[in-house]
Amino acid sequence: MLSLLGKIIPVYKEVICELKAAGVSWIQFDEPTFVTDPDSHKLQAFVEAYSELQLSLSGMSVIIETYFADVPAEAYRTLTSLKCITGFGFDLVRGTKTLDLIKDNFPKGKYLFAGVVDGRNIWANDLAASLCTLEELEGIVGKDKLVVSTSCSLLHTAVDLINETKLDKEIKSWLAFAAQKVVEVNALAKALAGQKDEEFFSANTSAQASRKFSPRVTNEAVQKAAAALKGSYHRRSTNVSARLDAQKNKLNLPILPTTTIGSFPQTIELRRVRREYKAKKISEEEYIMAIKEEINKVVKLQEELDIDVLVHGEPERNDMVEYFGEQLSGFAFTANGWVQSYGSRCVKPPIIYGDVSRPKPMTIFWSSTAQSMTSRPMKGMLTGPVTILNWSFVRNDQPRFETCYQIALAIKDEVEDLEKAGINVIQIDEAALREGLPLRKSEHAFYLDWAVHSFRITNCGAKDTTQIHTHMCYSNFNDIIHSIIDMDADVITIENSRSDEKLLSVFREGVKYGAGIGPGVYDIHSPRIPSTEEIADRINKMLAVLESNILWVNPDCGLKTRKYAEVKPALQNMIAAAKLLRTQMASAK
């Protein structure tokens, strides 16, 4: 990628020239790559790039911003050595070690943009603590060179708490969305200048104390149970090959078994039913009847298609994280707390404010209902603890892994109840496993250790005959494949088609995988319907690197966003491809 710098620099020069002509006097360059352990080659390229831009930038004030983690010492020295830069911005919420570097050596005469207000989470700032930090920094860089700032852009948090008219009053006092964070920055700047708003600071101190000591935050039983997990090693007692043999006898599945990932199309009618039930426009009885009818339709369709392991289609679920968060203690939800997820897709992340537990079963009724409609195996569908954690606004008063262990214990309770209800296949999705990987490589091993441990906690007590699936999608998993293997799932379904089968390269390179695996055979994010021949060709590529007795056939991901007019023929072709290859394999024996 660095080879493209020569082509990019002239474009930057043009943009800078246009900004100058428009009267812009300050310009900010975001360089978060500085927190990702840049090597000497990348640091040298950085110095050369800004040297090239120096003449164009003359007469302008220039800021370089980094965020989301600590800046390594060598990168910090390189960054702060640049003469053409007016000021440097650092994330001092997630970059506490960077604070030590600043205290040790900050270039004289330069501005420091001190990111003390968290731009990535929704908790109110501890103003008293931040003011202490700022006063210390002021003594280092000078009164006129210190700028109070957010740790990063406010893109990652919801817009304004004023829109949350139904949020619990006490919990609301603990929060700050983007608009409130701007107020916090302003209040800190004024306090630093000797114009402290005592009333505002006092209210903040009260809110901080309320959050710290509120009985709704702490559950001693949950804390104790989670603490007991830290030194333990949770894994199912039997190895995966023995479990797969027991499951084969129990489930009686063919070679190249077929399944889908979980969700079926969320129609306009289905969304209307959920919306009306939530608004109390229809009764609980009417709602249950409507959802049962949808499940029955999905089950019958899968039986007609001759899919081997069925799903209930998740018609009762709005979002794979929100659905579970609404039924767990320690979670709060906003009405308008939307944030961008990717592209034009926005989500409303749950807020984890306290210790997490499961007051009652969450999915048993619907999974049992679906299983009663068919003699084929029905998958119980759960979202995994790491994904729930990574797709929520997480409490910042304890380490993330402790919260994750609490969620894992809640999911463990659900797994055990599904098993008791006669559900023999249980899928625990961990779509966001890689998403939580820290930016600093030195922190990868610790994260993967507790993330994998959290998954294993959820199903460590399951019987050998209970088949545990997990699912991952839309990321590069090759570099963490050994951690995925260490999750010890019986079957992993994983995106493969959208990424042009890059996943298979890891198996071509000699990685041995003995559990069941279903690399997706077609991309569900496209309305295009793949042919039987195309899918069969994909499966054959998989068979070239994976044993036939562990290979599953399934789409890349859930079918929630597709229409039935696309889903039905695509699945028909998928089943036909699996059957074609079964016949060919039988003939070859």
UniProtKB/TrEMBL annotation:
Occurrences of domain Cobalamin-independent methionine synthase MetE N-terminal (ranges): 3-139
Listed InterPro entries: Cbl-indep_Met_Synth_N, Met_Synth_C/arc, UROD/MetE-like_sf
GO biological process: methionine biosynthetic process; methylation
Coiled-coil residue windows: none
Names of required cofactors: Zn(2+)
Record-linked Pfam families: Meth_synt_1, Meth_synt_2
Catalytic activity: 5-methyltetrahydropteroyltri-L-glutamate + L-homocysteine = tetrahydropteroyltri-L-glutamate + L-methionine
UniProt pathway annotation: Amino-acid biosynthesis; L-methionine biosynthesis via de novo pathway; L-methionine from L-homocysteine (MetE route): step 1/1
Cobalamin-independent methionine synthase MetE C-terminal/archaeal domain span: 256-579
Gene Ontology molecular function, alphabetical: 5-methyltetrahydropteroyltriglutamate-homocysteine S-methyltransferase activity; zinc ion binding
EC number in record: 2.1.1.14
Keywords from the UniProt entry: Amino-acid biosynthesis, Metal-binding, Methionine biosynthesis, Methyltransferase, Transferase, Zinc
Role of this protein: Catalyzes the transfer of a methyl group from 5-methyltetrahydrofolate to homocysteine resulting in methionine formation.
Annotated family: Belongs to the vitamin-B12 independent methionine synthase family.
Protein's recorded name: 5-methyltetrahydropteroyltriglutamate--homocysteine S-methyltransferase
Organism: Trapa incisa
